[in-house]
Structure formats: structure tokens, C-alpha cells
Design brief:
Length: about 350
């Protein structure tokens, strides 16, 4: 059974936006952009895959890839630069075409058992449809009810995956799926040039990094952290190179002879001679250093002055406009902040 383009676009559309006019076409454009396809290539791309047993379009089952694949797809999106098209998303799988999935019935009382399914369908299609099914099935639930359903769903899935040697699915994996769904279908930015006829000529693809982001790395203290944490931490960014002690002791390079021509050719370069600028502003004391003598006199005079003279209190006390102020309605037993609707007057 061929994968239905309508089903993919419908599940990729958030349920609170289904009634927006033209939303289907917009979601198509966003999926093509985020998956590294050409504009208008989504239909052609999906025809290359077959929906095994119709599980992608079936509302009665959820399909999950392993936790590692969910993380790999998310890290590819997280490293995406703004306005730069990523390479084709199939490059993420490095030639792998067969994947394992766990199929979980939506209804816990369903007679259909949870099972492992091997299919030639890439994980990003499974993540898109399953997240859309979860949103459609659960709707807008309070956090407590949604968390309880998530725990119950993952418990049923892990009962089968752990026995098959899978690492357990976690609540964080569901949160990652929600974030991917939001970014792919709505929150991501699609440049207008991508929608134009010359998009292939105007857009530049970013090279994929050949790094296994699922492997933990070591930091200085010997603590193991994930590469996603290391990449997002500002403290792990490489600092700029510091100058060596020998470099700090080096003298600054002297100015070239051509620098002397700047002042004489200021009418050409637009740079004025500093001395001419100072004289134009009336600073005639630049050469004789008289301002230095004035500063020394001021420093000598203030060093022996009394602190009270420096405060200049005499001018304030002798000012006839300054009169003493007395609060006539201040209740010392009951401060104003404890009294309601009481206005203090000043005589």
C-alpha cells in the first residue's frame, strides 16, 4: 500500500490549525523545506515508500522508532542554521533502508497485541504520523491526565521492546516528538526564495557533519555527558586563543612612514590633524602644558582643605529659600503604612 500524501500532511498539521484556510499547502511547503526536498517534491518522494500493513494511516495504532533514532532525527534539526537548507534527510540514515518499529494499539483493551515491525519506511515519516495521532486521540488534556496516558502507553511499548533488546522509551522521547512535530509543521522558518522558481539556484545546502551524536563524550572532570548537552552549553564553547607571555612583552609595531602623510593630506583622507583640531576648538594650551599646572594647583588646594568647606553646607544654610519642615500629622504610635486612607500633611 502506497503512503498517502494526504494522510502525511493531515497528521503533520496541528489539530488546532486544521480549519485554517490553505494550511495544507503551507504544511507541504514546510515539510519539503525541513526534510531537504525540492519545492513540490513531496508527492514524488512519498511514492518511493510503501506503508506496511497501512499502520501509518491507521488511527488505531501508534508506531514508535527506537529512542536512538528519535534523538538522531532531533539532533539533525537542532543543528540546522537559520535560513540554510539542510541536505536530504535520508542522508541521516547513511544508506540504511530497513528499520524496526514497535506498533502499540491505541486502546489498551484492544485484542491486537503490541509487536515489533520491520519496514522500509524512514523514521521521520513515522514520527510525523504518530505524533499527529497522539494529538488527535488525546486532544487538549490537563497535564496530569496527559502524563498518566503517556506513562501507560510507554509501559505497554516497553513491555515488548525491552524483551527485544531495545532501550526503553522515555517520556522525554515523547517530548522530543512533540517538538519535532511543531517545528516541521508550523514553527520552522521557510525562506521565500525556497517557494520561488529559482529556489535551487538561490539556496545553499549545509553539509551534514559526520559525527555520531548519540555517543557520550568526556569532559575535564571525567563526567560523561551527551553531545547534545555539550553543544548547547555555553561553557563548553572553545574560547579565543590567549596571548603568550612572550607576545605580551613585545612592543607595538611602529607606524609606517605613510602615516605621516595623513595629517598633510587630510583634505583627501578626511582625517584632520589632531593639533589643528585642538586649536580650532580654542584649546591653545595644548603645547605649553598650562593645564597641567592648573591641575597641580587645584590638587594642592583641595589636599589641605577642611571637609566641611568641601561640602559647601554654608551656602545651603544661608539660602533664605530653605525653611525647616515639620510633620504635623505624624502618628508615631501607628505608622502611615498601617493606616488606611490617611493623608499626611506637611506644614
Amino acid at each position: 500500500m502506497a503512503i498517502s500524501v494526504t494522510s502525511i500532511v493531515t497528521f503533520a498539521t496541528q489539530i488546532n490549525k486544521l480549519n485554517i484556510p490553505g494550511i495544507q499547502d503551507e504544511v507541504r511547503d514546510r515539510l519539503e523545506w525541513t526534510w531537504g526536498l525540492r519545492h513540490g517534491q513531496l508527492d514524488e518522494y512519498l511514492q518511493t515508500f510503501v506503508d506496511p500493513e497501512g499502520v501509518l494511516a491507521d488511527d488505531s495504532v501508534f508506531v514508535f522508532p527506537p529512542s536512538k533514532l528519535i534523538l538522531d532525527v532531533w539532533l539533525r534539526h537542532e543543528r540546522k542554521k537559520f535560513g540554510v537548507r539542510k541536505p536530504h534527510i535520508d542522508k541521516l540514515y547513511k544508506g540504511r533502508t530497513s528499520f524496526e518499529y514497535v506498533v502499540v494499539p491505541v486502546d489498551p483493551a484492544s485484542p491486537v497485541a503490541t509487536r515489533i515491525l520491520v519496514a522500509q519506511v524512514p523514521p521521520h515519516l513515522v514520527l510525523t504520523t504518530t505524533t499527529g495521532k497522539i494529538m488527535k486521540t488525546w486532544g487538549f488534556l490537563p497535564p496530569k491526565e496527559s502524563d498518566a496516558l503517556s506513562v501507560a502507553l510507554l509501559s505497554r511499548a516497553n513491555a515488548t521492546t525491552i524483551s527485544a533488546g531495545w532501550p526503553p522509551l522515555r517520556t522525554s522521547d515523547l517530548n522530543t516528538m512533540y517538538n519535532l512535530h511543531s517545528a516541521w509543521s508550523w514553527a520552522d522558518y521557510v525562506p521565500p526564495s525556497f517557494l520561488s522558481e529559482t529556489s535551487d539556484q538561490t539556496l545553499v545546502e549545509e553539509d551534514e557533519e559526520e559525527i555520531d551524536y548519540s555517543r557520550p563524550i568526556m569532559i575535564g572532570s571525567g563526567k560523561r555527558i551527551s553531545r547534545s548537552e555539550a553543544g548547547s552549553s555555553a561553557s563548553c564553547r572553545e574560547p579565543k586563543r590567549r596571548l603568550l607571555p612572550s607576545e605580551l612583552q613585545q612592543a607595538f609595531a611602529s607606524a609606517d612612514d605613510d602615516d605621516d602623510a595623513v595629517s598633510s593630506d587630510s583634505h583627501i583622507s578626511g582625517v584632520e590633524d589632531p593639533e589643528e583640531s585642538a586649536r580650532a576648538l580654542g584649546d591653545e594650551e595644548l603645547e605649553d602644558g598650562a593645564w597641567v599646572q592648573e591641575m597641580e594647583n587645584w590638587a594642592a588646594g583641595t589636599a589641605g582643605a577642611d571637609e566641611e568647606a568641601l561640602l559647601n553646607d554654608a551656602q545651603i544654610t544661608d539660602d533664605p529659600r530653605e525653611t525647616p519642615r515639620v510633620a504635623t500629622s505624624l502618628d508615631l504610635e501607628r505608622p502611615d503604612y498601617l493606616s488606611k486612607h490617611k493623608i499626611r500633611t506637611v506644614a
